[in-house]
Amino acid sequence: AGTAQAVSLVAEGQLQLAIVRCTPAQEQALLPALTEKNLSCEALREDDALVLFSARHPLADARQITAADLAPYPALTADDAPQPRPAAGRMQIAGRLQQMEVLSRLSTAYLWSAPESAQSLRRFDLVQRPCADSGLRFRELLISPAGYQLSAYDRRFLELLGKEREQLSRACGD
What we know:
- Helices cover about 35% and strands about 25% of the residues.
- The chain has a three-stranded antiparallel β-sheet, covered by helices on one side.
- It contains six helices and eight strands, in the order H-E-H-E-E-H-E-E-H-E-H-E-E-H.
- With about 170 residues, it is of the alpha+beta class.
């Protein structure tokens, strides 16, 4: 689900919690809508954007790349995904699974991403690399009804999620 859909599901009471990923600028644009819907948000994590692409991509062996290196290649995007620099072309693909599938099949496309797990990278034969000059960051936000008290189950879920994030940070060299 996209950010707008996740916010709507929490506002309508169909979900008690949602975790969304956005840029700090997108977060600022989202805050008035959350207030209007009597929802609150808490930042869980912030990461520098990484470039995600097929292990067969021409830049796959580069340890660090620049935005200029990406210019000749098409970018995959979600409907609300930011792009720090113009790309050779843009393909809008909704749904993370579909994005990963397309990346695994197209050896020249790339996607701006928060860190992915080693398991996901192996499953789709992808690599992730830092981009020295993107200036792009992603934040994960926990969205809930205002005043919502986390249950023991919620706290345990967030604890396990935090452990997974620690593993991602170590794997990405943070």
